[in-house]
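Batch 3, record 17
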Amino acid sequence: MGLSFGTKAPPTALSGTVEVSGLGKRYGVVQVLSDVNLSMAEGEVVSIIGPSGAGKSTFLRCLNYLETPSEGTIAIGGAHVVAGGKLPDKASLDHLRRVTGMVFQSFNLFPHLTVMENITLPQRKVLGSSKEQAEEVANKLLKRVGLPEKAMAYPARLSGGQQQRIAIARALALSPKVMLFDEPTSALDPEIGLEVLAVMRDLADEGMTMLVVTHEMHFARDVSNRIMVMGNGGVLEIGPSEQVMSDPQNERTRQFLKAVLDR
Amino acid sequence: MITQLLTSIAQGVGLTLYVTGASLLIGGVIGLVLVGAARSPIAIIRTIATLYINFVRVIPPITWLFLIYFGLPQYSLRLSTIQAAIIGFSIIASAFMAEIYRSGLLSIPDGQREAAHALGLSPVTTVAHIITPQAFRVALPAIATYGIGLLKDSALASTIGVREITYYAQQSAKQTHEGLLSFVVAGALYIVISLVVALVARRVDLTLRRKIGVA
Amino acid sequence: MDILTQWLGWLPNLTPGLIVSLQLTGLSLLFGFPLGLLFAVMAAAKLAPLQWISFFFVEIGRGLPALVLLYLLYFSLPDAGITLTSLTTAIIALTWNTGAYASEYFRAGLAAVPLGQKEAALTSGLRGWTGFRFIILPQALRISTPPLAGLAVLVFQGSALAFVIAVPELMSKAFEIGSITFEYLSVYTLTAVIYGSLTLVFLGLVRLLEQRLGRHLQRN
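Prediction for the assembled complex:
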């Protein structure tokens, strides 16, 4: 079942591990995240599900410091950061952001640049690649996400699903060790969302370490190795996908899954 | 020194306010006529109004003033400095106000007119009681902003001899050789008046917001 | 027929004045817009003194009538021992005025760039100055361009004020002709026509520019 695009790259031996311990975040007196721990092996795919306001996106965004955690430690693919107290130094943050790639709910493609430029500019500025090198990588990635003909188009002319696939290509262009997805299909029609999920599935098959905040229960069950259920800023439950979905241990998880799956 | 300058330059405040206020008022009224004409079903009226609005705004205010004050006497229309200034600024203000009204009117949803029509209200009643109050409330901040702009433009009246703030500042500068100080004082006066106008406008806007909701 | 010949006869006298007006406008825009951008960036800076300096210059620059600003510099600079030509003084005054208004448009433009763009730039490794230069600034500029173009038109009209400090621009040339021929109405009407038509042409160009800049936003 499902769609499959383009060429499959050989399994990435370069994906990374994730070690998060004791992550917490406060907004003033409100504790939005407390004591979140997560350990991921190379090539593992973990989906984060849970009710709104549970802190799923906040947690994800703490991992590349889009949000600043108040406490905890983060170790991703060789980068290591300790939160709380003063802000970590620029070098550590840069390293952290280089080993992680992020895909946003609202795609956030750069509207004033062509698709090609969206993918090559970060390479040229961050990796120092030449124009030719960057374009070569871009073309390969565009083939991989199934949109090689759209290189010279502007994002506004593309459908939501196409834009999101380009966004994935843009993130992959910097060879991240871990890919973070923040509700990648929530802004898309269910049918369009399938194209994006197919690309994500391919990526998982190729061995990329992926952490996905999502409401797509089928993806969570079929593609991810484990599911982490969050509620009220903490982890309610984490375990193998099949098990969490069919036989959850936590009462709150049960309630949530019932509401979601019985629609 | 400063108090001396202040008392002498502040003599101009009266005429500054008078020229600004009168021009805003007259321009505001003419603007109403203009915006009505610009929406008229009769093509000629519409064209004339639109041409007027676009024509007036592309000419510098100082050129208008000189045109009226120096040019009209050739037709035996000798105006006082104050009259020329007010006429000039009123013409300019009318064009800008017409545009402000137009934006205000555009922001009123068609649904309002449709509801009025369905209720059987006459066009005049609709415009007078339904459209205008809402459009006015929406346009008020823009009108206040324009008013402050007009206040600053009124300084130009000094170039044709109107004895307002800038005129007195020039006099002081020449007589006391305190050029910097004179114009700092003048500048401060303009800023203070602008602030007062802005505060009053905000107060009025808040009050209106509570009394007249807008769709 | 009479008027046209009269007008054509005056054009050689008025043209040098027009050129000075355009110079004044052009230079004021050339220096004023970057100044405005600087003010806008300073206003968003973390350092409080930068914010205050920006606030001071912007509020004076746009709180004062342009004429007062002009006189201020004209009368005060010589006292400070700085002697400049009238034209230079006018350029400084107009640049200050332009920069102050432009800074507000730049601030609005910068604020209007969606937050997601900044985040995407960060996660794509385009941070700091690079991210600002390639991602944020281009988008902010596109948003600010229409009001900035309107400002440019006002600056052109504002150049007419330089007349009062004896800058030999268009209005002063017109006044010369008027004082000699007493045909004030005619010469000022011609002046108005010149200002008006140039402004209209410029506005037309701006509309073209807007369309070109918005090209990337056109959907299928």
